[in-house]
Amino acid sequence: MKKRLLVVDDDASVRESLKRVLEHAGYEVELAADAAEAEGKFDDHSFDLLILDLNLPDRDGWDVLERVSSSYPLLPVILITGLIDQLETLIIPGASALLEKPVEAPVILRTIEELLVAGSKGDINRTTSVSFSSGRAVIKRRRGIMAPDAK
Asked: Which residues of the chain have pLDDT under 70?
């Protein structure tokens, strides 16, 4: 069965580009242009992973992350942003990875695969560390609350 992903970004070209890449990789993809549309999609569907832009026209992406995380605490969430200096705020409940725009196809595909594998093993629960590679930050989550360990 195909994994279902929701891509939330206010830029239509980013949404469509990500959709093409992700569908080509075998994922089922839904799109939303803003927070309200994204929340409506969650009302109608279940998803295996969320890709969320932080800069949305109707509400801040952090607000969407908080709402989604409270309802779906184990859902992997990849934050994407064109904003700089967002890493300090990444270590909050709900975020699994942060990618800066422009998002490169191999990087997002690798990140999605890693998060879906971790989720299937039950490893996504609480933040324990942050790892950095290839222009991305990936949050490691394990059971129990521990201090973040930046590597």
From this structure: 84-94, 119-151
SS (H, E, C) 109-148: HHHHHHHHHHHHCCCCCEEEEEEEECCEEEEEEECCCCCC
The pTM (predicted TM-score) of the whole model is 0.79
| Residue found under tokens 């469509």 | 16
Whole-angstrom CA distances from 102 to 3, 39, 81, 94, 150 are 24, 25, 8, 22, 24
Measured over the CA atoms of residue 106, residue 107, residue 111 and residue 112, the dihedral's sign is: negative
What residues contact residue 27 under an 8 Å CB cut-off, 6+ apart? 2, 3, 4, 5, 112
Q: Which residue segments constitute the domains of the chain, with CATH numbers given?
A: 4-122 (3.40.50.2300)
Q: Which two tokens stand for residue 72?
A: 């779906």
Q: What is the enclosing helix (H) or strand (E) of 63?
A: helix 61-71
Q: Give the separation between CA 96 and CA 98, rounded to whole angstroms.
A: 7
Residue 99: strand, helix, or coil: strand
